[in-house]
Specification:
By secondary structure, the protein is an alpha+beta fold. It is about 20% helix and about 25% strand. The chain has a domain of about 110 residues: RlpA-like domain (Barwin-like endoglucanases, Beta Barrel).
Amino acid sequence: MYPLATILLLGAVTVGTTGCAPNPAAAASATSSDAEPPRISAAPAKPRPDLSGHMRVGVASFYAKMFAGRQMADGTNMDPHGDNAASRTLPLGTTAKVTNIGTGQSAVVTIQDRGPYAKGRIVDLSPSTARDIGITQKIGVAQVQVAPIAVPLPDGRMRPGVAAQDAKP
């Protein structure tokens, strides 16, 4: 009887020390409550380039005098008398027709810079272009329609925009 008791005791000790395999779901829930929550970046999401060539409507403003001569995103200097403009989403090198919805006046611009960073604005114009479409220092901003004429693609080709037909002589 002694050998049977020894075998049973030895079996119980072996099972007790090896234990069962842990439940993966239980282990995951235990660690997730102890783990630090994921951090959310406070930086605003970078807008994706809009290569569609579609028209957009929004508010336009113009570059302040202090930006005259400063380097723009494409490496050229901002010319307050040029046709340069800034867009957060249109690719650099895009040509677009900007029309003041209130006055009907329009001008063709080249996107050479990034911005504007004021909420709700879709394009910053050089001061002379802004004046050409009826945006004065007194008014400051206007509701505009931005219709791309030609949009450069990453592979070097140009995509005609919605205003391409209007731009042909």
